[in-house]
Amino acid sequence: MRAVIIAGSGHMGKSHAKEWRTLGVTIAGVVSRSGQAGEEEAWRGIPVFPSLQDALAETKGVDAVDICLPTYLHKEAIETVAAAKKAVVCEKPLALSSQEARAIIQVCKDNGVALYPGHVLRFHNEYALARQKVKDGAIGQPGVFRLARKNRYPYNGEPSWYSDETKSGGVTFDLGIHDFDWILWTLGHAERIMARRVKRASTDRPVDYVLAVIRMENGAMVHVELSWEHDRFESSFELSGQNGMLTHSSADTEAVKWIGPVTEQDKVPTPKSTGPSPMFKQLQHFIRCHRGEETLQIQPEDALRAIELAEAVVQSAEEGRPVELKGGVVS
């Protein structure tokens, strides 16, 4: 990829722009629905367009469009990009429903364009290392996994698309999709889900909290805790198996800890991760895939499966009963 258009000038768009520049990719334009991007330092010197159609029509030599728009706008934007025969990079979650995700995957196939779904957690050193150790048998047969992802409620005194579930999917989709993808990537298909949710609308301190218990086809049990009611961002995991346990918390000074026989201590390096950011590594991977130098690590169908799992969690919490899956799909 030599040049990209970024659709979306908010926080995520700025984060992507920083890494594209570091990678030597030209940002041919940014789509700003508010029209205010031109006034921001992050977009200085970059052409600003009011719509994706305008950006595509008025730029040349663009290889891909990076979708950093609110989730509810992904499908329409990707259809426009695919029709223009440009590759698609899309922030997570790919869509708000499995139906939308399938339509997105199909329209990209029909137009012969590459679809690069962003699931940046796969490029976090701690999560990539832990997955590899599980796959290598370091903890033995997986038993009970506990993952948590918490942050402040995305609310600054004004209405936000994040707080509208029809636009963001709520905490289950926006935060949970990270861990759902990692679980499926590491352990395979889910078999049964039971979830509970606490949601409180308030002008002073709104709450969105989900606890999901997932039984995997391989027998492992996974507890996922998601919260938009925390003072700061924090993520963690505790991966237990018959031979020991791997733990990580973003609040710790060590990246990943091994709890088990002393002789196993050398299985896991402990320093905090350094080097390029996970986002840099993800976009670099997409560039190499586009050049045919690497095989895409995150297939569009992987993004679809994570959405199907999120839907099952939402269904269980709403109906107050377990949801059974077969082959990862609600049965």
| Biggest β-sheet strands, sense, barrel | 9 strands, mixed
Q: What is the CATH C level class of the largest domain, in words?
A: Alpha Beta
Mean pLDDT: 91
> How far is the first residue's CA from the last residue's CA?
41 Å
Number of domains: 2
Low-confidence stretches: 263-267
Radius of gyration: 20 Å
How helix-rich are the residues, as a percent range?
Answer: 25-40%
Strand order of the largest sheet: 13-12-11-7-10-9-8-14-15
CATH architecture of the largest domain: 2-Layer Sandwich
Question: Overview of this structure, please?
Answer:
- The termini are far apart.
- Mean pLDDT is 91; it is low at 263-267.
- The strands form 2 sheets. The chain has a 9-stranded mixed beta sheet. A 6-stranded parallel beta sheet has the order 3-2-1-4-5-6, sandwiched between helices.
- It is α/β, with parallel strands linked by helices and 331 residues long.
- Helix content is 32%, strand content 25%.
- The protein has helices spanning 11-22, 52-58, 74-83, 98-110, 125-135, 165-168, 170-174, 176-187, 278-290, 300-319; strands at 3-7, 26-31, 48-49, 64-67, 87-90, 115-117, 142-150, 190-200, 207-216, 221-227, 234-241, 244-249, 257-259, 323-326, 329-330.
- The chain folds into 2 domains: 3-117, NAD(P)-binding Rossmann-like Domain (Rossmann fold); 121-274 and 298-330, 2-Layer Sandwich (Dihydrodipicolinate Reductase, domain 2).
